[in-house]
Amino acid sequence: MQVHQFEAIIVGAGGAGLMAALYASKGGAKVAVVSKLYPTRSHTGAAQGGIGAALGNLEEDKPLWHAFDTVKGGDYLVDQHAAMVLATEAIDSVIELEHMGLPFDRTEDGRISQRRFGGHTSNFGEKAVRRACHAADRTGHMILQTLYQQCIKENVNFFDEFHVVDMVMNNGKVCGVVAIQLGTGEFHIFHGKAVLFATGGWGRVWQVTSNAHSLTGDGSVVTLRRGVPLQDMEFYQFHPTGIYRMGILITEGVRGEGGVLTNRHGARFMENYAPNLKDLASRDVVSRAIYLEIRDGNGIQGKDYVHLDLRPQTVNHYLAEAGETRRLDREIIESKLPDILDFCRTYLGIDPVDAPMPVQPTAHYAMGGIPTNVNGEVVTDANWTVLPGLYAAGECACVSVHGANRLGTNSLVDLVVFGRRGGKSIAEYVKQADYVPLPSNPTGEIEAEMQRIRKTNGKTRPHELRSTMQKVMMDNVGVFREAPLIQEALDCVRELRERYMTDIHIDDQGMRFNTDVLEAWELGSMLDLAEMTAISALARTESRGGHYREDFNQRDDENWLVHSLIAPTAETVGVGAKNPEYALTHDKKVDMSLYEAGDDRFKPKPRKY
Ligand SMILES: Cc1cc2nc3c(=O)[nH]c(=O)nc-3n(C[C@H](O)[C@H](O)[C@H](O)COP(=O)(O)OP(=O)(O)OC[C@H]3O[C@@H](n4cnc5c(N)ncnc54)[C@H](O)[C@@H]3O)c2cc1C
Q1: Is there a single domain that holds both residue 73 and residue 101?
Q2: What pLDDT is recorded for position 456?
Q3: In terms of residue numbers, what domain contains 280?
Q4: Is the minimum distance from the CB of 20 to ligand 1 under 6 angstroms?
Q5: Is 283 in the active site?
Q6: Residue 577 pLDDT > 90, yes or no?
Q7: 0.90 exceeded by pTM
């Protein structure tokens, strides 16, 4: 068993992990990044449309407007102080990325190009504004490459293809993580003063998703199983435009450039649901509108999808109608959205310049996650009690700047703003903290659990359980929810967990690159996440943002303007609990500091676009 000692251990090498590693290292800490994927294969590389910052390069924009859109977009469950930090620091984070060498698209006078995105407005909702800074439709890819190069320059140590499966604690204090090296199957201990989780989201819990196979949420479950709660698990975002049946994302940037959603009559239906912003309303609003069109029999050919129309003749008609002078043509589309065109040509055999794209909502983004303050420190209760030495950033964390519904481009900002803050906090923390000694046998529990998975010798292949979970979560805990359906999903997931514990079968008994075992272990994490999502969704008897209850279809600020926290009960904390039980609380207040400071524009009101 190898033990590695580093002051700062960053789990995950996406945008959040790399930004944190960079700043911890710049601050003088000895840093290791431990990642189950090779860093530049992290999912940040798939981000397409842009990173939001009120640079005002093409029209007037302000951080306060960005903060307002974020709070409103999140259906007022956003912590307002955090939103202001996000919007303010977005500006210099984007400029910093530019100075690191990120090749943003340019305006004619050489400044960073910006485009429209859902829910981005000027002057507190007045009209759509160009805020999304972009590098074609490969913005995340460019961010990831840029940050990786900077980390190499700063001598960050990388442990690629090391899968973290447990967090090590001693007397309630964090002292490291346990990882399995994929190539050898050996267990490694990473002993650190501080650990930051940046392990991304868990779209793979649902059947149709924009997320890669690796997005199974296991980092968040590793901390959970050691007693750290998860916040706002009922809020999971469905992006309106995934390629029909495949879920592959068609960026909101398509609508930002002028693309429109149409039904089987060729009608632009978003005018009926969001008269002001139309196709650029926030994602929860657009996803629900698509489902309602389908329910009304307006899906294409009566099926469960609609069209996203980017053909120049359609777009130019609507641009002219709106009094805009700009026009789209093949050349502009090819230069601004090259990957989208490629996806459609490859996977659908159609060219979006000539034919509309078939789309349906796709599971996309976890608004909830490991609760943190604005410095990336993990907090464990409604009183914001910090767990010393533990940090989180990026999609696995919940700051909370996304509240009940994230705005497009705000995740990439979240990664760089709060990744940087987390890295800086760690650099300060490790200067004064000592290493907490490792407990005796730090790998004992997780080795036993891995052995159980390997040796159960039942009848069920893990993928069978995974498919059933994904289907029931898609059908019952998706865009529309109601009590009997959520309960059915919960019962189903619990039964799947029972079978997962007693009846699975693993074919590959080898040590090297045993993805059979690790995928089975990931399934265990997803079952936990599915169960917590269903429990939290059942309890929240209101509709807010991405959580829409048909049986409670109004927002209820009097009773529900609060965050949820869910964690295993004291009796079921630990790795490999057969039937974990969860305690769910709703006493964590939403930070309303902008409103409380007298700015009435931040007062919760009905959301209209
Ligand atoms: C198709 C698509 C397009 C998007 N477009 C945009 C956009 O235009 N703008 C925007 O703001 N947002 C966008 N998003 C959302 C955004 O890209 C993600 O939320 C964000 O990139 C997540 O970054 P992250 O650093 O938190 O995690 P990731 O980039 O997902 O990285 C997670 C890291 O954790 C590691 N990891 C996970 N589990 C373990 C483990 N157990 N042990 C070791 N390592 C582990 C992985 O190897 C990986 O390195 C998009 C998302 C998708 C899916």
Answers
A1: yes
A2: 93
A3: 239-360
A4: no
A5: yes
A6: no
A7: yes
